[in-house]
Write a structure and sequence with these properties.
Blueprint lengths: L1 H37 L3 H14 L5 H15 L5 H18 L4 H16 L8 H11 L4 H13 L3 H14 L1 H14 L4 H7 L3 H14 L3 H14 L4 H13 L3 H8 L8 H14 L3 H14 L4 H13 L3 H14 L3 H17 L3 H14 L4 H10 L18
């Protein structure tokens, strides 16, 4: 009897040891497969993932990893697209059969099923049912709601998509902006969408700004942004967004009125910059000069402000002031190609001032940046002193007094 008990004990110990070794081998191979996947060594990762399954076939994670590897091979442009998608589908279905209440597997299956549909194949589970199942299991997860909403928008089921957008606005407002932009690729009618976003003024403001820039619905964007701003006049972000919209429509006086509260606040520079852009585009040079000088006093090293001021002086014929800004830009502009334009403008100014030597100097600097400009090459040849020619100083004696 004692011998039988001992034998049974040894058998249990052996089974535990074998199980422990198998568990270790499973974990080791799965860990290696994950690392190889991260390092983009996909064939090796695939082999290791399959090897992990041999030691623990009833674990869902190797199936999930194999599906990810097949999808990554697909993303890298492998030619056997349908085969890779079907393999990924099979792995995810296997993972779901082992762990049916894990929403990630359902969401990934929805993505694979949608890709199969796109290639004209019939998936084993419809994308809609897979995405819906993920959202049922984890109803407040923004990732799954967003994936499902994208699918519904692409399928032009805007009524169902709107319900998901409303929920996402409560859970993760930032994620809805991307979905709204996708909406416009499939449904150019923005009003139902804007109505949804009316409950979130800041997101509505951002969306209206995008609509005004990228669609023909500028007046509608202005209407809803104004509506959001009037509801929340103390919201600084909305005020700035509304001012930008007015700026893009060239309404400088209205822009100034909206921005005026910021002119003596920490947001003074941001507000003045918006107003300056409007003035610059509308060529309101007198007011623009005052604003740019104020901006430069706030940010003396801004290339943008000094470049705009140099342009203003060139347009209005204030060459001496333009020269001062251009010389500063030549010293401080960070990009060589941008400097080339400053060299050219300076050369033209010096030429107008009857200073051929300085004009020649800056034309040569320009050619170092743009060596292929034949017109400037001819200009340099013309300004180069001929053999035996006397070069007179551009300075007159009265300048020395």
């Amino acid at each position: 009897m004692n011998l039988l008990v001992k034998a049974f004990g040894y058998l249990i110990l052996l089974l535990v040891l074998v199980g422990g070794v198998k568990q270790w081998l499973f974990s080791y191979n799965l860990f290696q497969a994950e690392n190889l996947y991260q390092e983009n060594q996909l064939p090796e990762a695939l082999w290791k993932g399959k090897r992990a399954l041999k030691y623990f076939p009833s674990h869902p994670e190797p199936h999930r990893l194999l599906a990810k590897i097949y999808l990554e091979l697909l993303a890298q442009g492998r030619s056997n697209q349908k085969e890779l998608l079907k393999k990924a589908e099979q792995e995810l279905l296997q993972a779901i059969s082992i762990e049916p209440n894990y929403p990630y597997y359902w969401a990934e299956l929805g993505r694979v099923s949608e890709l199969l549909e796109h290639l004209g194949e019939m998936p084993q589970k419809s994308p809609r049912s897979a995405f819906h199942r993920a959202c049922l299991i984890d109803p407040n997860n923004p990732l799954f709601l967003k994936m499902f909403a994208k699918y519904l928008i692409r399928k032009k089921d805007f009524t169902s998509a709107q319900a998901l957008l409303k929920k996402l606005l409560e859970l993760d407002p930032r994620s809805t902006v991307e979905l709204a932009k996708i909406w416009f690729n499939y449904n150019p009618e923005p009003e139902p969408l804007l109505e949804i976003f009316s409950s979130s003024p800041e997101i509505l403001g951002e969306l209206c700004e995008w609509i005004a820039l990228h669609t023909k619905e500028k007046s509608l964007a202005q209407k809803y942004l104004k509506k959001a701003y009037l509801k929340n006049p103390d919201n600084q972000k909305l005020r700035l967004q509304y001012a930008k919209l007015l700026m893009n429509q060239g309404e400088c006086e209205k822009t100034r009125q909206i921005l005026e509260p910021f002119f003596s606040s920490p947001l003074e520079e941001s507000a003045l910059r918006i107003y300056s852009i409007c003035l610059f585009r509308q060529k309101k040079w007198e007011e623009e000069e005052k604003v740019l000088l104020k901006l430069i006093s706030l940010s003396p090293h801004s290339v943008e402000y000094r470049q705009n001021l140099a342009h203003l002086y060139l347009v209005t014929g204030q060459l001496q002031k333009a020269k001062e800004q251009l010389l500063w830009l030549c010293e401080n502009a960070p990009r060589q190609r941008a400097q080339g334009k400053f060299y050219l403008e300076l050369a033209k100014i010096f030429e107008k001032e009857s200073n051929p030597q300085k004009a020649l100097e800056f034309y040569k600097k320009y050619l170092k940046v743009y060596p292929g400009n034949k017109k400037i090459q001819q200009k340099v040849k013309k300004l180069m002193p001929q053999k035996g020619e006397i070069i007179y100083s551009p300075w007159r004696m009265e300048n020395e007094k």
